[in-house]
Amino acid sequence: MALKTYIEEVWQTLQSFSGLENRSLVLGYSGGVDSEVLAFLLSQLKQSQPQLSVKLVYINHGLSCFADDWQKHCEQRAIQYQLPFVAKSVKVKQGSRLSLEAEARKARYQALLEEMHSGDILLTAHHQDDQLETLLLALKRGQGPKGLSGMAPVQVIEKEVIQYRPLLNLSKSAIQELAQQHKISHIEDDSNQDDSFDRNFLRLNIIPALKKRWTSIATTGSRTAELCGEQQALLDEVVGEKLTSYLADSPYAEKVLTLAGFNELSRPWQRQIFRAFIAFIKLPIPSRVQLDEILDQVLNAKSDASVELNVSGLTIRRYQGQVFAFASAQLDNKLPQSIVLGTQAELAEKDYQVALADGRVLQLSEILNQVQLSESAPLSIRFNLAGSTQCHPHFRHKSRALKKLWQELKVPPWERAKVPMLFINGKFVSAVNLWIEKDYFKVGVVE
């Protein structure tokens, strides 16, 4: 295929993105032959479409003694291409239980995204052989159709950034031929010869043998990934429709999964819907073994039991027939501290707003408007009252123990200690945003 045809295909795809004039194109630029050819193609496209905003970004991982030399090479090439260039240094986490490949990839993408805004387009130089590697790794990991879908030519990633892989249908040999034809200078990463890395092992030892036996395996592998992607898209559509029947709103989570009728589903459907729930709230998907353990625990527990499971950075909780999911790192187990607010007049100077240590901001003006209050009475916020505390909410005719009210109002156990309790002159007056004590409620009883 001629260079002009490549450029036309890239331009045709880019034009399919609405509002292209407001999007920036950012190339993850390493200086290797793949990204170098893509940088060259972009420079040619820029000449015919000068309105495009294009930037080359080199990520210096600091893992090779040649990294600074490669950075200089990329900077010099960017000058020749007449394209803006940015170099960013990252620190890659290393450890006995960490994959250096995965951590480098994570650091690289994070650095690239820092250079981008919502709607921008990230271009990466993945090609057909990379797709075959991805397919083989998915087989090695025992992944299903989603994993076997490999890399999509176009997908939306973090920050609503669009990732576009213009070379995905090109073989490695076709890219190398382009580089030779147009005398495109590129670097050779010495780490590419280290077959202790999974991708290098496949690239150096397995794929050449496969291609020797089946010359078109990269092409057919890409076709397999495309077919799996289509099947996964259809499955996602059906699962998404089913998921809506089990999603529920909650003041204590973005969404919760209600378990009513869930036991009647087959285990494969339970897995699919639960995975879709976790994906919907943008949390890490548990493995098949972890998923079955979660389902066994939440589905087989007694109806009044509270369940909590922690797997791979994911915390799953069940309460009153609903499943809550959180990123474990985001959970703060520290109890908030009591706060002395001063008098109503002093609180008014702060517009009745109270900042809590966990980042929440309470607005107390509406509550205080409904409370019988002396302006000179001291106000305070306390937390974690004893469950035996007798309370008389404005909406009830009789008082009840606090622990029973928590259950009645469906406040999950892990949230109860965080509910701000308003005291005036040492007397309990309100569970903020839940109720006002009847003796202090001046508007009237709400049945």
TrEMBL record:
Sequence ranges assigned to domain Lysidine-tRNA(Ile) synthetase C-terminal in this UniProt record: 379-447
EC id: 6.3.4.19
List of residues binding ATP: 30-35
UniProt GO MF annotations: ATP binding; tRNA(Ile)-lysidine synthase activity
Catalytic activity: cytidine(34) in tRNA(Ile2) + L-lysine + ATP = lysidine(34) in tRNA(Ile2) + AMP + diphosphate + H(+)
GO cellular component, one term: cytoplasm
Function noted in UniProt: Ligates lysine onto the cytidine present at position 34 of the AUA codon-specific tRNA(Ile) that contains the anticodon CAU, in an ATP-dependent manner. Cytidine is converted to lysidine, thus changing the amino acid specificity of the tRNA from methionine to isoleucine.
Domain comment in the entry: The N-terminal region contains the highly conserved SGGXDS motif, predicted to be a P-loop motif involved in ATP binding.
UniProt record similarity statement: Belongs to the tRNA(Ile)-lysidine synthase family.
Protein name listed in UniProt: tRNA(Ile)-lysidine synthase
